[in-house]
Amino acid sequence: MSEETTRRIGILLFPEVEELDAFGPWEVLSHWTQIYPQDGWEVFTFSADGGAVTCAKGLTVQAHRSAADAPPLDVLLYPGGDGTRTMLKDEAHLAWLREQRANVPLLTSVCTGALVYAAAGLLAGRPATTYWKALPELAALDATVELRPDERFVDDGDLVTSSGVSAGIDMALHLVARLASPERAREVRKGIQYDPEPPV
User: Which one of the listed residues 111, 134, 154, 165 is annotated catalytic?
Assistant: First the structure.
């Protein structure tokens, strides 16, 4: 697959990002893109400056790229975590996110990433979900959002939101089904041996 025809998924990393919000989808999407390169997709992480990021539970990770160096995206995946609360008040970041909305065909979020979308005005009048504890905060940010509290993820065409933490894995598998095929998504699910049966 040539560089010109490769389609790209970027996962944003930022200080205090929730680890599983970012790396649950990373596991799904990187398994897909590395095991099935013929599908023509790649996934990478990026941060504001391309440097290392310390996550919510203390894990430190190095992003692949900076926001400035990232190639044009076909999908943006915005995780949640305590760090989103800083982003809600960062006008430069919200303006950047509005630019992404204008240029990126598909925006997705995990957990409280949806709050930042709402703060940027991207969820106005649209169905969406987020982490269950953050649903009142989402409603307060934009009362026009049609909350879907019982959904693991909500696909509204060019915008997909998912609920808390582990729901990002389900959302990422949905993306594989949508961007490739349901059969491919089943192959990826089997490959990562994801078949949840909670023990408690």
Answer: 111
